[in-house]
């Protein structure tokens, strides 16, 4: 167990990444009770947006200049696609049967994947993502890579900003009101359509940041990257209690650490040798989900539905 | 011209017509009540007036302006506030946050702060618990909050849907006397109630609704002494 701090750091970095994506699922679900299955593709488009910014810059541009621009363009692309999806794919179906937007979300997810595959230059296979470079940050008990540092800084910044926004601003209060009772929020004068768009946009922005983090970690972006990341983040959102923004981050961290621990140590358990290693990590992630839901069907920070009435 | 004028209003849920062509008016400064049993279409009428439901046909004008096609969030800006059936406070927001949402569209922070102060004067229990989640309040306290919240927009017309529903007799009296005070201060109120006795004793005008239609109209006094109303709604035979 010598490398426990390393594995923990690894798990937390992965978990923070899942958590950032999970915010988008949970905010949209909390307000319109829609599972936006296209959110993984919003994440992927954020990654391609960031790559595009990097490719536009002259060769040899330092990361100190490139990174802010990558974040900016990644966020802008993801937010625009999310707003477009809400406006043209989901809003016309609002008030209809609940299955219709769900099917639309799955269709949209495929359409966005294929659009990137077909129209982004050389996206038919994975495209290499720029690297941060520079050495690890040695804290003594654990050495953090630059890639991990990026997520360890950006995830708390995003969460803090979101927490303050929701609790302290007028729009944030309107957002809480809309998620608790949309009709009554309208009676207060809240334009709930605008609140829904805001939720989609915030989720997309966070997903774009997560995509950059994943690009740094894996060294590539590809048109399929949103599928498994989206599935894991959705799992994190359910694990934490869907509808609860802090639950999304907690669920992400639990999932990431659980996955890292299982990958590193399950193989050491007598009798389970063949289940260790990276190829089983998704299996352990979903087993964790099942175990948590058996004990707490509402998720770690979720409320029972009866409490919401 | 009356503050609110409703003309031949029809509202349907799919093929089922819940409101079948009703007409009535509310003058500024008046209390008007709609009474009738469950399912008569009273709540549907209020939800249509505040823009949550779309009318099939009919004309609604408020303060001289037509309300057709105006979104719910804009209707409250015109001065029509709605305290909905079942109170519908925001349970996980604090009492004070609920009140602030009532003033969501107002741009005068000083006036809003004053009005929150007056709400706490009117209902001291709300002031004592201002930081508490509204969902922890009792039914009667939630009703106080719902009314106070609706008043926060400084409405020209306050619509109250079943404010006495599910309350203890003492609490019901408290709520009804508050409505009396609001009336004395000149607030225009459209009151929907199943408690016909209490509603008619406060009202300048009343309308009896049955299965989507207005079957009888008159002053509060007249309706209270009407034979059929006494039989059907005041529990006398």
UniProtKB/TrEMBL annotation, chain A:
User: Where, by residue number, does the polypeptide cross the bilayer?
Assistant: 12-32, 39-57, 63-90, 102-120, 149-167, 195-216, 246-266, 278-295
The UniProt entry, under Pfam families, shows: BPD_transp_2
Q: Does the keyword Translocase apply?
A: no
Record's bilayer topology term = Multi-pass membrane protein
For this entry, list what GO says about its biological process. Answer: D-alanine transmembrane transport; L-alanine transport; L-isoleucine import across plasma membrane
Q: Please name the InterPro entries in this protein's record.
A: ABC_transp_permease, BCAA_transport_permease
Predominant location category: membrane
What keywords are assigned to this protein? Amino-acid transport, Cell inner membrane, Cell membrane, Membrane, Transmembrane, Transmembrane helix, Transport
Q: Where in the cell is it found?
A: Cell membrane
Keyword set includes Isomerase: no
This protein's source sits in the domain of life called Bacteria
GO MF term list: L-isoleucine transmembrane transporter activity; L-leucine transmembrane transporter activity; L-phenylalanine transmembrane transporter activity; L-valine transmembrane transporter activity
May I ask which residue range the UniProt record assigns to the signal sequence? none
GO CC annotation: plasma membrane
Which family does the UniProt entry place this protein in?
Belongs to the binding-protein-dependent transport system permease family. LivHM subfamily.
What PANTHER family does UniProt report for this protein, alphabetically? BRANCHED-CHAIN AMINO ACID TRANSPORT SYSTEM PERMEASE PROTEIN LIVH (PTHR11795), HIGH-AFFINITY BRANCHED-CHAIN AMINO ACID TRANSPORT SYSTEM PERMEASE PROTEIN LIVH (PTHR11795:SF371)
From the Swiss-Prot or TrEMBL record, give the protein name.
Branched-chain amino acid transport system permease protein
What organism is listed for this UniProt entry? Streptomyces qinglanensis
UniProtKB/TrEMBL annotation, chain B:
Q: Which residues form the ABC transporter domain?
A: 4-236
In its UniProt entry, the species of origin is given as Streptomyces qinglanensis
Q: Cite the Gene3D superfamilies for this sequence.
A: P-loop containing nucleotide triphosphate hydrolases
Superkingdom of the source species: Bacteria
Q: Which family does it belong to?
A: Belongs to the ABC transporter superfamily.
Alphabetically sorted, this entry's keywords are: Amino-acid transport, ATP-binding, Nucleotide-binding, Transport
* InterPro entries, alphabetized: AAA+_ATPase (IPR003593), ABC_branched_ATPase_LivF/BraG (IPR030660), ABC_transporter-like_ATP-bd (IPR003439), ABC_transporter-like_CS (IPR017871), BCAA_Transport_ATP-bd_LivF (IPR052156), P-loop_NTPase (IPR027417)
Q: List, alphabetically, the Pfam families matched.
A: ABC_tran
Q: What is this protein called?
A: Branched-chain amino acid transport system ATP-binding protein
Q: Which GO terms describe its biological process?
A: L-amino acid transport
- Molecular function terms in GO for this entry? ATP binding; ATP hydrolysis activity; branched-chain amino acid transmembrane transporter activity
């Amino acid at each position: 167990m010598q490398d426990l701090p390393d594995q923990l750091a690894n798990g937390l970095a992965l978990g923070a990444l899942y958590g950032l994506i999970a915010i988008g699922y949970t905010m949209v679900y909390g307000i319109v009770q829609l599972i936006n299955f296209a959110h993984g593709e919003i994440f992927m488009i954020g990654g391609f947006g960031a790559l595009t910014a990097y490719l536009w810059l002259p060769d040899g541009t330092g990361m100190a200049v490139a990174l802010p621009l990558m974040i900016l363009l990644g966020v802008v692309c993801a937010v625009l696609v999310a707003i477009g999806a809400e406006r043209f794919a989901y809003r016309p179906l609002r008030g209809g049967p609940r299955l219709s937007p769900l099917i639309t979300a799955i269709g949209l997810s495929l359409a966005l994947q294929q659009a990137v595959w077909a129209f982004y230059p050389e996206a038919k296979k994975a495209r290499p993502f720029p690297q941060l470079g520079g050495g690890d940050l040695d804290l003594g008990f654990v050495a953090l890579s630059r890639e991990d540092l990026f997520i360890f800084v950006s995830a708390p910044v995003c969460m803090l900003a979101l927490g303050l926004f929701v609790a302290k601003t007028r729009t944030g209060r309107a957002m809480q009101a809309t998620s608790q009772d949309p009709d009554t929020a309208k009676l207060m004068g809240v334009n709930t359509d605008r609140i829904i768009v805001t939720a989609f946009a915030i989720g997309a922005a966070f997903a774009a940041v997560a995509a950059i983090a994943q690009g740094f970690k894996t060294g590539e972006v590809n048109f399929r990257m949103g599928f498994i990341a989206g599935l894991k983040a959705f799992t994190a959102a359910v694990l934490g209690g869907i509808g609860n923004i802090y639950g999304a981050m907690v669920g992400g961290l639990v999932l990431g650490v659980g996955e890292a621990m299982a990958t590193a140590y399950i193989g050491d358990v007598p009798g389970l040798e063949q289940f260790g290693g990276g190829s089983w990590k998704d299996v352990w992630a979903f087993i964790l989900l099942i175990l948590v839901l058996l004990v707490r069907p509402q998720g770690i920070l979720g409320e029972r539905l009866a409490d919401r009435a | 011209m009356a503050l609110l004028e409703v003309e031949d209003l029809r509202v349907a849920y799919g093929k089922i017509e819940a409101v079948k062509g009703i007409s009535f008016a509310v003058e500024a400064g008046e209390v008007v009540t709609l009474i009738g049993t469950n399912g008569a279409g009273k709540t549907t009428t209020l939800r249509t007036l505040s823009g949550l439901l779309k009318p099939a046909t009919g004309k609604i004008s408020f303060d001289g302006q037509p309300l057709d096609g105006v979104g719910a969030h804009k209707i409250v800006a015109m001065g029509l506030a709605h305290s909905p059936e079942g109170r519908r406070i925001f349970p996980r927001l604090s009492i004070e946050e609920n009140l602030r949402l009532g003033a969501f569209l107002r741009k005068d922070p000083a006036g809003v702060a004053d009005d929150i102060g007056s709400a706490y004067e009117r209902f001291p229990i709300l002031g004592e618990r201002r930081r508490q989640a509204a969902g922890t309040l009792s039914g009667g306290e939630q009703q106080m909050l719902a009314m106070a919240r609706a008043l926060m927009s400084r409405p020209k017309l306050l619509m109250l849907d079943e404010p006495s529903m599910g309350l203890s007799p003492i609490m019901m009296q408290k709520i009804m006397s508050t409505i009396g005070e609001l009336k004395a201060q000149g607030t225009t109120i459209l009151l929907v109630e199943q408690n016909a006795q209490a509603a008619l004793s406060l009202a300048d005008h009343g309308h009896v609704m049955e299965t989507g239609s207005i079957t009888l109209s008159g002053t509060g006094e007249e309706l209270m002494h009407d034979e059929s109303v006494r039989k059907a709604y005041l529990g006398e035979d």
